[in-house]
Write a structure and sequence with these properties.
The chain is mostly helical. The strands form two sheets. Strands 1-2 form a two-stranded antiparallel ribbon. Strands 3-4 form a two-stranded antiparallel sheet. α2 runs antiparallel to α5. The chain is elongated, with a radius of gyration of 23 Å. The two termini are 35 Å apart.
Length: 163
């Protein structure tokens, strides 16, 4: 006997789940929000601090629909109306991945500017070492986030079965 499976898109799976268990998507959305808020707190706790706490306090988790003006860098943006995401300061990429030494002098990014910068290192930024704090925290929390979302959907199924 052969096992047959039908491959469906996300919209079809969502539609079928909503038809079968109406509260499942509502509980999943609440779980997503809880997950991103919790991971934002965890990242803030391990984020590097500078002279101010502005960077560390700049992490927040919320529904994407609450931030329509936010820039989306994805080539494939989500179609999920209840998607939740992490907002972080724009400097996160420099702290997470590091920067190479570079010239901060006017015209320092040109070939001529690099030549003068190497002769006079006064306008050189030494670069920064990588200070990973976002991805390691998310990778450590990912299994917990999946469990929270599965528990929320299971709760919706239990409520549906009680009716």
């Amino acid at each position: 006997m052969a096992l047959k499976a039908k491959v469906q898109g996300r919209a079809a799976v969502t539609r079928n789940l909503n038809a079968f268990v109406p509260n499942a998507l509502k509980y999943a959305a609440e779980a997503n929000l809880k997950d991103v808020q919790e991971v934002a707190e965890k990242i803030s706790a391990v984020a590097p601090t500078g002279a101010t706490l502005e960077y560390m306090e700049g992490f927040s988790g919320d529904f994407l629909k609450n931030h329509p003006d936010a820039t989306n860098f994805s080539k494939n943006p989500t179609k999920d109306k209840d998607a939740a995401g992490l907002s972080a300061p724009w400097t996160r990429r420099f702290l997470e991945w590091c920067t190479a030494p570079h010239s901060t002098a006017p015209g320092g990014g040109t070939v001529a500017g690099r030549a003068t910068a190497s002769a006079n290192p006064a306008g050189m930024h030494p670069g920064t070492a990588a200070q990973p704090h976002i991805w390691p925290t998310w990778n450590a929390f990912r299994a917990t986030a999946i469990k929270i979302k599965k528990a929320a959907i299971a709760k919706a199924f239990r409520e549906f079965n009680r009716k």
